[in-house]
Amino acid sequence: MDQQLPNQQQPAQQVQNPNPQQQQAQQQQAQQQQPTNDQPKEGKGDGKTGEVKKLISIEKLLNSIITAALDQRASDIHIEPEPKRVRVRLRIDGILRESWSIQKEYEQSLIFKIKIAGKLRTDEHFAPQDGRISFKLDEGKKVDTRVSILPTTHGEKVVFRLLTQDGRSFELKDLGLVGQDFEMVQRAYQKPYGTILTVGPTGSGKTTTLYAILKLLNSPEVNITTVEDPVEYNIVGVNHIQINTKADLTFASGLRSILRQDPDIVMVGEIRDGETARIATNAAMTGHLVLSTLHTNDSVTTIPRLIDMGIEPFLVASTVNLVIAQRLARKLCETCRQPYVVTEQDLTAINRVRPDIGRYLKVGEQLFREKGCANCTDGFQGRIGLYETLQITKDIRDAITDNANADKIFEIARKEGLVLIVEDGINKLRAGVTSISEVNRVTALKV
Ligand SMILES: [Zn+2]
Prior knowledge:
alpha/beta, 7-stranded mixed β-sheet, nucleotide-binding, ATP-binding, ATP binding, P-loop_NTPase, T2SS/T4SS_dom
């Protein structure tokens, strides 16, 4: 890490913020920091007082970053050392945006402060560390965070995950599941046994969908237990278990133990190995409702993935009830979204890069695109799920048992009315909920 000498830069250069109001606040903090450099410049008091004052202002800086991140509905904060500055980025609705630039000389104090708050080792600079920090902010606000520190070539990079409860007050009906997809999900979770899987890349909202289902199933008459990594938030009445590899509490061992605790409904954070897949399948076979996630691109390829993990085709066929493949698209801001009519040129441009999207669109139809206003981030506000819901019907069950490949299963599912993620995206595009750029971006994501 760079050891910088006290320099002559103006305080205003220390923290640059694109948002003028925040910029002013940051500058005030920067001014507070300026006299408290490592060297006791002021010549008043001893070095100790200077250090304490510096920590206080670094604490203010950290609190203002957390507060701004919360206000902007960010999910993560990245504090990244670069050769000449520290970059701070926020992930908002799945997209990273640069929010501040902090002068390099404050890097070590900031990291030190974070390590103290997270009860991490302050003398360790070369090993990854992680912990939790609960911030008490102004106006009685409080937020829990998961913090991870990783040494990079330019210093220690810090990532905070904000564990906010308010963004989680979702209901299944608000996630974007519509029509037959919504009905299929309702039917599947009302069955007393079998497996419901949500699939897609990291950050596609798989766990959120499962939480929404758990909230509907949650009642005093049933024992619901989860094994997760991490437990992001708690549903009252549900037993959440955090995996802990140091204590040999993995998805597989946790699941095995849950099954000795008289469960009705079990949620496994992720099926990523054969052992977990086998225990989950057994649980579903023996009268439990099992919810889990898997990393596959689409609904149909989940079936061969489970078979590749060592589950017999007839067991996959008899236990899996429903596979929900999904992505999260940013929702257009309703205040500033711009209506436009699709032109010949628009269609040609789309067809050049994504003919699978272009083939659903027509010249002359009205869509909406993003603009940007004071109420939103780049024209977007919040996110909505795009879904592909595969119900394991009798014909599909027979095909799986006969060891049919993914193409054959896909053919049957399409005949039975399977709506693809991109088609759900087109529907939401036509409804003015999202934009072509978003449908393009999220449906291009591969696992
Ligand atoms: Zn707007």
